[in-house]
Design goal:
It is an enzyme of class 1 (oxidoreductase). The protein contains 12 helices and 17 strands. With 361 residues, it is an alpha/beta fold. The longest helix is centred in the last third of the chain and has 17 residues. It is globular. Bound molecules: flavin-adenine dinucleotide. Flavin-adenine dinucleotide (FAD) binds next to helix 1, strand 2, strand 14 and helix 8.
């Protein structure tokens, strides 16, 4: 029985690869015509690496730098802790494209430049005409499709995400090497790390009300460097590489798809369409690939979507709930210095918390 996968990001590509490898007929509909930058911190956890390894991809072969330590920062205050694993900084432009190449090589049909506009049951309205799916895997990630939108009740949706690349001054690049730096500021947080190509990824989330006060990226960046001496130091003498940053709003952090009795049993949600963990956990891609793999396995053994969704809802509960609680704890500006002081005093605590937000391997 053939499967249609909507979206060729980490979740959709992983589902498609496993299905195609098992001999299933798979069509991947991906709206982008060519590789492009994505809004993402590009922190690749050990679990995400394991999924890539299964598909035959090694981050180090792309020149992705290793990351082994966390720095938690508030203004000039810095605490450091070892990560519980070796992570990598791998650009999504490189990773997503390599995944789609592997998916096609496994025998799936990858249709680029096909935007799914609306979903009704398993009937898709696309730019290229109507598609009827026998089995449907929805992997459109951060973007909802009309007719199949996620319910955001009970989630945190008031954040705007920004991502840009910088060429850092040589001494700052050397100081950042091997670290993911998470900088807390009143109304949000930013992550800075090196990725392949020798550049630094600056990805941040800021409350809408806080962004409204400045209105655009240059004053936002100025506000952040004014309020965070560590970030100002890192960006001194740096060149911004994107003409304008990538942005996104309205992500439903804390969302987990809850299955209903009347759900179509051949309509599977994977990746951010199934669950959304706060970005600072650096676990979104691992969860996406884990879910993509699990959906493929469910389809192959004839397990319906309701059982698949119930299993994911239970499986992701701890990670998503803990990451949400940590996010809420770190959100008020007044608590942030105390949080950094706690990590400076007990670095093992940060390492432990980082392990507890991981998805099972
Ligand atoms: C600011 C921010 C920082 C993050 N940092 C990290 C991090 O450092 N590490 C980490 O592991 N996770 C991180 N995440 C989470 C991670 O990016 C996501 O969890 C992950 O990308 C989800 O994968 P996905 O395949 O579900 O969706 P996506 O990566 O969003 O991919 C969806 C795909 O579907 C395509 N598509 C969308 N709509 C349609 C349509 N209508 N028709 C056809 N195709 C469509 C898109 O073009 C895309 O290729 C971050 C998220 C944000 C917002």
């Amino acid at each position: 029985m053939s499967v249609v996968v909507v979206g060729g990001g980490p979740a959709g590509a992983t589902a498609a690869w496993h299905l195609a490898r098992a001999g299933r007929e798979v069509r991947v509909l991906e709206r982008e015509t060519e590789p492009r930058d994505r809004i993402c911190g590009e922190f690749l956890s050990v679990e995400a690496q394991a999924h890539l390894a299964e598909i035959g991809l090694d981050p180090a072969s792309f020149g992705a730098p290793a990351i082994e330590r966390l720095r938690l920062v508030h203004d000039a205050q810095v605490a450091e802790a070892p990560l519980p694993f070796r992570a990598y900084g791998l650009t999504r432009r490189a990773m997503d494209e390599a995944l789609l190449v592997r998916v096609a090589a496994a025998g799936a049909t990858v249709e680029r430049g096909v935007m799914v506009r609306e979903i009704g049951g398993r009937q898709l309205a696309t730019d290229a005409g109507e598609v009827a799916a026998e089995t449907l895997v929805l992997a459109s990630g951060k973007h909802d499709v009309r007719g199949a939108k996620r319910v955001s009740r009970g989630t945190v949706t008031d954040l705007i995400g920004f991502k840009s690349y910088f060429r850092l001054a040589e001494d700052q690049r050397a100081a950042l090497a091997g670290h993911i730096e998470v900088m807390l500021f009143d109304g949000g947080y930013a992550g800075l790390q090196l990725v392949d190509g020798g550049k630094a990824n600056l990805c941040l989330l800021v409350e809408q009300r806080r962004f409204a006060r400045v209105g655009s990226w240059p004053p936002l960046l100025a506000m952040l460097t004014d309020g965070c001496r560590h970030l100002a130091e890192r960006l001194a003498g740096a060149t911004e590489l994107l003409e304008r940053p990538l942005t996104i709003s309205g992500i439903p952090y804390g969302y987990r798809y809850r299955p209903h009795r009347n759900d179509d049993d051949r309509f599977y949600r994977v990746g951010d369409q199934c669950a959304v963990i706060p970005s600072f956990a650096g676990d979104g891609m691992a969860m996406a690939m884990h879910g993509g793999r699990a959906a493929a396995q469910a389809i192959l053994r004839g397990e319906g979507a309701r059982a698949y969704h119930a299993a994911r809802h239970a499986e992701f509960a701890r990670q998503v709930t803990l990451a949400q609680a940590l996010y809420r704890l770190g959100r008020p500006g007044l608590l942030q210095p105390a949080l950094v002081a706690a990590v400076a005093r007990w670095p093992g605590l940060a390492t432990r918390l980082a392990s507890w937000t991981r998805v099972p391997g």
